[in-house]
Backbone:
């Protein structure tokens, strides 16, 4: 990645606290088009919180978000979607009681000229997108509740890519999946990357994401320990960053880096 | 269960789950896409009807009783259609009975005190203005409660429990407890009765229009599915559904049309219309009562709202997963406010029906209606856990409740015993539903 390009997303000095606890404290991350950036850290390191600020689920206390170098105003999930930011949440944010098409278009339903829901058109598009992701998927009429974990995950992913996302956030995308499905998600990420989409991968398990990512950002106690290109560091060194906050020579230290050493 | 996972290669497509042969009955339901749960309710209701018919010695399944039943169920049925959506969003509205009482009182005072002073007694616009005042007031009360629930995060159970007390007290304060009567003559038509029915010819016209509508909607849905090349229902299944639906509609019209005006009313009608009174009396069919027509209209509008609009979709999404709905960018709080406002408006319409039918407004009107309304919704298959419920089910639920009520009255059962039976039936119905859902899974 050349650093003189304008990043697709830049979060600068972002902080948020909940009841006096600094969940995210002066964190800065950036992401370029066609790049996969892994955001790593223990549970509670603040990575999900940081990313929820980008997706509009939380409102930051301070700091800036820049999209293509311009200040972006993101105060709710609708704002984020306007900037082409789509999120696949760890908790699989799907409405269990409605069908796949309804979930894909939730909040952005297609409507007929009379303003009513155009269910048939939505189902047609859903069949098309799901056909690409998961050719065997046939259960379009059933509530999502009736689907398997992998099928639900493909619904969540389909929803994110349906609307021409430029920035994709995947929070523990493979947590609910078996090995085969995980491989499938990996392929999908590579494909989306080729299409020029910037992807944030959030995980607490380095093995899930190290091979997919171009760069890693490591967070600890709400602060960024440092970041590195995956080719410049080893998995063990990144583990050291996650566990101890120790920054190896190949990485750029952040405000959360261990001060001794 | 066959599991289609992402990784299964296309060549190994397991079509087993779709093309499961099953027994003929199962195939029939699959092809016609009939909601078996709803069908079960219809069967249960028919069983109740036949049971009462036998026990009462042939009094229940008469056109007269069924006509009365339809009128009596109208008010609760109107409110139940809204209660379904409230419960679907994991809320509850305990204040509907009290809102009905208060709004009914205000509508009564409007048409007996304010409007006559301004427009004169029985001015043709009185009924409409009174109803409009009621609907605006009902929506405002509902929206107010909804805002407290959505924006101040007070649980709906508490807000509407407070509302139950507040609006009941307010209903008393409007006239210091005095009953207001009589209502405007046009307004009274909304309550049914001899004048408040549309007669045989108009009823048949309504029935035929309903049938045309059924046929057109079947054709439209086929056309839509063809447009995108989706699998179609078998033609025989479409025919079965169409013919049975039209048969039920026309049969119901026929039943309502075979209830004739009681002799003294008919005599008065004949006098008013200058018809000579024949020796053996005059059979003037009542046809569909206006409150029933209102309740059916509301049910259709609410079904449309639920299935075909964004609002309805959001209501169900919120019920299924509030967090997901919020993250999808739905303004969940505003949906809640609008939903409670809608519930308030429905209470106002129910209040109009019930004050018109009683030809009076009392401060006790609608007492315990919240429980009948919730019971109707729940018997109709609405899950208190949220996310599940249908308008048609709630209307059927209201009919079942009213059938039990009037059946027990016909049998001459004591009022306390009636309450005991209704209470037990409610629990039994929900228990059966729980078993059904567990097996369907």
Residues:
């Amino acid at each position: 990645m050349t650093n003189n390009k304008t990043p697709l997303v830049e979060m600068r000095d972002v902080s948020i606290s909940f009841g006096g606890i600094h969940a995210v404290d002066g964190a800065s991350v950036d992401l370029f088009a066609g790049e996969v950036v892994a955001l790593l850290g223990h549970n509670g390191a603040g990575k999900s919180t940081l990313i929820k600020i980008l997706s509009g689920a939380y409102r930051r206390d301070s700091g800036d978000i820049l999209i293509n170098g311009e200040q972006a105003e993101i105060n709710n999930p609708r704002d984020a979607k306007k900037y082409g930011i789509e999120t696949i949440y760890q908790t699989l944010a799907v409405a269990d009681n409605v069908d796949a098409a309804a979930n894909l278009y939730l909040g952005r339903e297609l409507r007929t000229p009379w303003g009513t829901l155009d269910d048939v058109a939505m189902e047609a598009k859903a069949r098309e997108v799901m056909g690409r992701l998961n050719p065997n998927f046939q259960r379009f009429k059933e509530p999502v509740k009736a689907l398997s974990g992998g099928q639900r995950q493909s619904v969540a992913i389909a929803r994110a890519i349906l609307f021409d996302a430029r920035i994709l956030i995947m929070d523990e995308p493979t947590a609910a999946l078996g090995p085969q499905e995980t491989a499938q998600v990996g392929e999908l990420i590579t494909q989306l990357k080729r299409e020029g989409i910037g992807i944030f991968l959030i995980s607490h398990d380095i093995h899930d994401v190290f091979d997919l990512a171009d760069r890693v950002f490591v967070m600890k106690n709400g602060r960024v320990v440092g970041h590195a290109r995956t080719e410049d560091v080893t998995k063990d060194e990144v583990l050291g960053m996650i566990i101890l906050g120790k920054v190896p020579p190949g990485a750029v230290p952040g405000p959360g880096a261990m001060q001794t050493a | 269960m066959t599991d289609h996972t992402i990784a299964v290669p296309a060549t190994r497509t397991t079509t087993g789950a779709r093309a499961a042969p099953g027994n003929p009955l199962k195939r029939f339901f699959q092809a016609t896409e009939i909601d078996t749960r709803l069908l079960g309710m219809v069967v249960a209701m028919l069983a109740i009807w036949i049971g009462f018919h036998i026990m009462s010695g042939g009094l229940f399944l008469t056109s007269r009783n069924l006509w009365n039943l339809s009128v009596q169920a109208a008010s609760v049925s109107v409110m139940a259609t809204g209660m379904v959506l409230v419960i679907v969003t994991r809320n509850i509205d305990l204040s509907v009975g009290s809102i009905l009482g208060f709004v009914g009182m205000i509508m009564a005072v409007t048409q007996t005190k304010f409007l006559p002073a301004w427009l004169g007694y029985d001015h043709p616009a009185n009924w409409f203005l009174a109803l409009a005042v009621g609907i605006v007031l009902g929506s405002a009360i509902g929206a107010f409660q909804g805002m407290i629930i959505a924006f101040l995060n007070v649980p709906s159970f508490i807000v509407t429990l407070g509302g139950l007390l507040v609006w009941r007290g307010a209903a008393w304060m409007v006239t210091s407890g005095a009953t207001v009567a009589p209502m405007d003559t046009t307004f009274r038509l909304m309550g049914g009765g001899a004048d408040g029915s549309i007669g045989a010819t108009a009823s048949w016209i309504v029935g035929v229009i309903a049938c045309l509508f059924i046929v057109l909607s079947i054709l439209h849905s086929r056309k839509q599915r063809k447009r995108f090349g989706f699998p179609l229902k078998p033609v025989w299944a479409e025919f079965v559904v169409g013919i049975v639906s039209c048969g039920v509609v026309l049969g119901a019209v026929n039943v309502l049309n075979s209830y004739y005006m009681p002799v003294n009313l008919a005599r008065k009608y004949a006098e008013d219309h200058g018809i000579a009174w024949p020796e053996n009396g005059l059979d003037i069919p009542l046809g569909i009562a206006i409150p029933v027509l209102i309740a059916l209209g509301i049910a259709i509008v609410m079904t449309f709202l639920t299935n075909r609009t964004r609002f309805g979709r959001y209501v169900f999404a919120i019920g299924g997963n509030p967090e997901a709905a919020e993250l999808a960018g739905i303004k969940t709080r505003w949906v809640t406010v609008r939903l409670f406002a809608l519930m308030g408006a429905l209470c106002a319409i129910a209040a109009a029906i019930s004050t018109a039918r009683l030809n009076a407004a009392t401060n006790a009107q609608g007492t315990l209606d919240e429980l009948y309304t919730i019971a109707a919704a729940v018997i109709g298959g609405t899950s208190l856990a949220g996310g599940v419920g249908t308008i048609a089910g709630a209307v059927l639920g209201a009919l079942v409740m009213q059938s039990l009520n009037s059946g027990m009255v016909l049998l001459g059962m004591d009022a306390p015993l009636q309450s005991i039976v209704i209470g037990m039936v409610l629990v039994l119905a929900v228990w059966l539903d729980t078993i059904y859902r567990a097996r369907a899974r």
Notes: Residues 245 and 258 of chain A are 5 Å apart (CA to CA).
